[in-house]
């Protein structure tokens, strides 16, 4: 046995411990995480029906994973495999109400409104709480009875927000998940593990058109800025950003000039294969310091994915350097 899962029926009923032979888990800023485990048939039998059960696993370093079992199967060697999706799954296969009218509000407010409506009808979602940033520019939304998970994801994209449902079934939607941990976390290549770096032009914009807000979109002020050196290095890569709260050229121009300087340089994609000494003190979405010759010294890195293989004792974290720091 290498670990223990806590398995229960929805809402925590009939909770029991399930020993497993192997377990791996992942967390992802961009969407649901996953868990896979292998157990003996003898251990699986007393647990009864595992499909759609809730599962929780605590990693010794303090990382906790929670979600819903979505798939089980017996292997040729008699062992049982199970797979689970993080508690994002509580929003899947749930239908939003057909309001048949257009609502304009910040994306976070709309998401919170939808969660409360769906939770109040048919059957509770199972969320313990929802913590939502309700500020921001309004987006327009018309619901015709869609999938709740897809609707919340679309609202987050429109509002430039990130969202998650953590292992404690708390829904969060905010501008950026995680926190700035640079005041206390520095991971060093060769001390806490190994660092691999790849640079990418994905997301690079060296010719930026900034468009301001205003009541009449056809008369909105706009300003274009370029980074000539980046255009020579990476060819012209164009993009547009809307600044709803800026209405004059004098206000838009400095923002566009600043943003094109940040966007014109490739980000570095960083993968950290960490020894146990580097497993704690930070979390998904956090910004931390990473020091490596491959980065040219110390750089700020935002952690976007984390994966753990318990049997191998390995944790792998991936992220990107902050804009302008690659």
Average pLDDT, rounded to a whole number, is: 88
- How would you name the oligomeric state of the polypeptide chains in this document? single chain
Computed structural class: alpha+beta
Q: Tell me the fraction of residues in β-strands, as a range.
A: 35-45%
End-to-end distance, in Å? 43 Å
Please provide a written account of the structure.
With 326 residues, this protein is α+β, with helices and mostly antiparallel strands. The protein has 4 domains: 3-87; 92-174, 3-Layer(bab) Sandwich (Phage tail protein beta-alpha-beta fold); 186-200 and 267-321; 207-263. Helices cover 16% and strands 44% of the residues. It contains 5 helices and 21 strands. It has helices at residues 41-44, 107-120, 148-159, 228-234, 249-263, and strands at 3-9, 13-20, 22-28, 34-39, 54-58, 64-74, 80-86, 98-106, 129-132, 138-144, 162-165, 170-174, 186-188, 193-200, 207-212, 222-226, 238-243, 267-274, 287-292, 297-309, 314-321. The strands form 4 sheets. Strands 1, 2, 3, 4, 5, 6, 7, 13, 14, 18, 19, 20 and 21 form a 13-stranded mixed β-sheet that branches. A hairpin with a 4-residue loop joins β20 (297-309) and β21. α2 runs antiparallel to α3. The longest helix has 15 residues, at 249-263. The two termini are 43 Å apart.
Condensed summary:
The chain is an alpha+beta fold and 326 residues long. Strand 19 (287-292) and strand 20 (297-309) form a beta hairpin.
Lay out the secondary structure.
Layout: E1 3-9, E2 13-20, E3 22-28, E4 34-39, H1 41-44, E5 54-58, E6 64-74, E7 80-86, E8 98-106, H2 107-120, E9 129-132, E10 138-144, H3 148-159, E11 162-165, E12 170-174, E13 186-188, E14 193-200, E15 207-212, E16 222-226, H4 228-234, E17 238-243, H5 249-263, E18 267-274, E19 287-292, E20 297-309, E21 314-321
Parallel strand pairs: 9-12, 13-19, 15-17
Antiparallel strand pairs: 1-2, 1-5, 3-4, 3-20, 4-7, 5-6, 6-7, 8-10, 11-12, 14-18, 15-16, 18-21, 19-20, 20-21
Helix pairs in contact: 2-3
């Amino acid at each position: 046995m290498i670990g223990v899962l806590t398995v229960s029926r929805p809402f925590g009923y009939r909770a029991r411990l399930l020993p497993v032979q192997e377990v791996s888990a992942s967390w992802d800023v961009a969407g649901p995480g996953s868990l896979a485990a292998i157990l003996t048939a003898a251990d699986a039998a007393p647990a009864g029906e595992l499909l759609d059960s809730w599962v929780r696993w605590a990693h010794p370093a303090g990382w906790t994973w929670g979600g819903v079992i979505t798939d089980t199967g017996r292997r040729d060697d008699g062992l049982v495999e199970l797979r689970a999706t993080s508690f994002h799954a509580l929003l899947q296969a749930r239908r939003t109400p057909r309001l048949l009218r257009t609502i304009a509000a910040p994306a976070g407010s709309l998401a919170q409104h939808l969660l409360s409506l769906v939770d109040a009808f048919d059957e509770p979602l199972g969320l313990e709480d929802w913590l939502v940033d309700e500020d921001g520019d309004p987006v327009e939304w018309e619901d015709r009875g869609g999938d709740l998970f897809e609707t919340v994801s679309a609202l987050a994209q429109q509002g430039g927000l990130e969202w998650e449902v953590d292992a404690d079934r708390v829904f969060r939607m905010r501008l950026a998940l995680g926190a700035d941990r640079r005041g206390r976390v520095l991971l060093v290549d060769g001390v806490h593990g190994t660092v691999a770096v790849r640079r990418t032009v994905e997301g690079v914009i060296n010719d930026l058109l900034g468009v301001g807000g205003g009541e009449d979109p056809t008369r909105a002020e706009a300003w274009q800025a370029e980074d000539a050196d980046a255009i020579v290095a990476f060819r012209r890569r164009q993009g547009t950003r809307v600044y709803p709260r800026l209405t004059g050229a004098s206000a838009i121009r400095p923002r566009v000039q600043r943003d094109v300087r940040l966007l014109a340089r490739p980000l570095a994609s960083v993968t950290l294969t960490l020894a146990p000494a580097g497993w704690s003190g930070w979390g998904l979405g956090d910004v931390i310091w990473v020091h490596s010759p491959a980065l040219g010294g110390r750089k700020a890195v935002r952690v976007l994915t984390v994966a753990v293989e318990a049997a191998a004792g390995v944790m792998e974290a991936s992220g990107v350097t902050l804009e302008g720091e690659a």
